[in-house]
Amino acid sequence: MKHLLRTAALIALGGLSACSTPGYRTLNPSCLDMAAQPKYQRDGHQDTTYIVAVLAGRSPQDAARLSFFNQAADDVAMPFAAPQVSVWGSFGAWGYRHRINAVLHSLHGGNTEAVAQRRLDLAGLIAGRVGAGGGADWQTGFLIHSLGDSYAHTNAVGEAYGGLYGHVFDGHWPDLVGNRQALYFDYVDALFAALEVDGASDREGLAAFKASLRATPDGDVSAVRSAILAMRDDIAPAPRLECEALADELTMRNVSRFLREVEAGFGRGRPVS
After folding, report:
1. Is residue 135 part of a domain?
2. How far is it, in rounded angstroms, from Cα 265 to Cα 24?
3. N or C: which end of the chain has fewer CB within 10 A?
4. Cβ neighbours, 10 Å, residue 184
């Protein structure tokens, strides 16, 4: 039986590895050669973070770093993305699997009250880090990913999906911004408030960004994605990042330790190192 389980795990990992080339190498404009263009944009995490961070008064460089680290939670797939970790973590790494799914990707299975509290906790942690000089580190980027997923990874009645199956039975529907614009605007407002720099933010720009999305047809996912991409192109050129070096900052040991501390601080107002 152990041999069969080991074989099944290796087969599963082999299939996942074939799809695990880090997405930032082809999809993040801050990681591409000047002549190259990404195949498509990731609007919910990568591009929204860049737009909102710049509008909140952060520098394009810091916005790009936060955008990179936010998306890295999905891009660096084998150690950090929910689908991959859900497979290999089921073979003896349940604690790590729980932290990746329930904390990093906000798949905690809570009711609407728990969801609201999780959003408040995450927004507070982000504001605390940037206010204390944490700025654009990977920890803040991962917290922003968790905050975004605390909105996206909820079902039609506002309850969080659980860590066992995630939203597999609803497909990609929860992650598509155009399907739930009002919920997306709630996230944008929360992220803007957490990142806002007094005297440097652009609230009129934020209102214009949301107005451009409201002008798209209801439920038109492609139109919303195009509007977000257009705003990213207009707001500030994407600065070049040393993306491989940034990715090398992410280790399973450090991420696991950080997520453990984050979870321990939920609902307690405890600072996270």
Report:
1. yes
2. 30
3. N
4. 23
Domain count, the chain: 1
The angle subtended at Cα 33 by Cα 28 and Cα 34, nearest 5°, is: 100
Domain of 83, in residue numbers? 2-265
Q: Residue 2: is its pLDDT beyond 50? A: no
Return the sign of the alpha-carbon dihedral for residues 248, 44, 19, 27: negative
Helix H or strand E encompassing 2 = helix 2-17
pLDDT tens figures, 157-173? 999 998 777 787 778 88
Structure tokens at 220: 């038109």
Within 10 A of 117 (CB to CB), how many other CB atoms are there? 14
pLDDT one-digit tens code per residue, 26-65: 778 788 654 444 433 488 899 999 999 999 999 999 999 9
Contacts 24+ apart (CB under 8 A), 240-247: 240/30, 241/28, 241/30, 241/31, 241/64, 241/65, 241/68, 243/24, 243/25, 243/28, 243/30, 243/31, 243/68, 246/65, 246/68, 246/69, 246/72, 246/138, 247/22, 247/24, 247/72, 247/76
Residue 115 in any domain: the answer is yes
- 102: helix, coil or strand? helix
